[in-house]
Write a structure and sequence with these properties.
CATH class of the largest domain: Mainly Alpha
CATH superfamily of the largest domain: dinb family like domain
Radius of gyration: 18 Å
CATH architecture of the largest domain: Up-down Bundle
Largest sheet: 5 strands, mixed
Oligomer: single chain
Protein name: Mycothiol-dependent maleylpyruvate isomerase metal-binding domain-containing protein
Shape: globular
Pfam families: MDMPI_N
Structural class: alpha+beta
InterPro entries: DinB/YfiT-like (IPR034660), MDMPI_metal-binding (IPR024344)
């Protein structure tokens, strides 16, 4: 799992980038199309998460939107600090409301918010760089955990929702670490040992730096990006994997 320092590093870098970015600048997001909208979104999410951790009860996300008259960057910094203080002070074993009606804990929220901050830091940086790398503020272990969490949280929810099955298993292989994963046709993700024998070999393998694999899952990288991804096996299955909406 990512450490508390990952959340702090990503949130601090996000605030610093927000302070230097025109809030009207376009970013690569169809949902939050400007830098200012991205800042407002992450700030709202962090306050909403902090409230649920503080109270142990579900909260209405709309109650934590930034008032129009409040300075955006100061508001974000204050909310990020509130979130980190709340996580630090909370009982790590206390059951808490989590995403999709599930129950979680403080570590669940610590993990979710670290990855949320990293993801939207990437979004914010697209205002100045059309295709930035995965935020370097997050180390290799944190990047790999973004993939683990995506499988545990978002693929699990996609299964419940009834996502269309893949033709066969797809492997993800990191080129800058020893991490590797398999995604079953039913979208269940598990870690695998690179080169380990398997009764059902993958129909496609996607190899890339672990941060690029995370960006691919987050729909923030294209499988066709030059020099970033290698596909072995059935390219059509790899494409179906990369383009099927999972995180709705």
């Amino acid at each position: 799992m990512p450490s508390p320092s990952d959340l702090r590093a990503a949130s601090t870098a996000f605030a610093d980038a927000a302070a230097l970015t025109d809030p009207g600048a376009p970013v690569r997001s169809t949902i939050w199309p400007t830098a200012g909208r991205i800042v407002d979104h992450l700030g709202t999410i962090q306050r909403w998460a902090a409230e649920q951790v503080r109270t142990g009860a579900p909260a209405d996300r709309r109650a934590f939107r930034r008032p129009d008259e409040v300075d955006r960057v100061s508001w974000f910094r204050e909310g990020a600090e509130r979130l980190m203080r709340t996580l630090d002070d909370a009982d790590p074993e206390r059951p808490l409301p989590f995403l999709y009606g599930a129950s979680g804990t403080v570590p669940s929220w610590q993990r979710r918010m670290a990855h949320e901050a990293a993801k939207h830091l990437w979004d914010l940086r697209t205002a100045l760089d059309a295709d930035p790398p995965f935020p370097p503020e997050v180390d290799l272990a944190g990047r790999a955990d973004a993939i683990d969490e995506f499988g545990e949280v978002f693929m699990t929810e996609a299964q419940r929702r009834g996502i269309a099955a893949l033709v066969g298993p797809v492997d993800l292989a990191a080129t800058d670490s020893t991490d590797a994963w398999r995604v079953s046709p039913e979208w269940a993700l598990v870690r695998v040992r690179p080169g380990a024998a398997s009764e059902a070999p993958p129909v496609a393998t996607i190899s890339a730096a672990v941060g690029d694999l995370a960006l691919l899952l987050w729909e923030r990288a294209s499988l066709g990006a030059p020099g970033r991804f290698r596909v072995d096996g059935d390219a059509s299955v790899a494409t179906a994997f990369a383009t099927t909406p999972v995180h709705l």
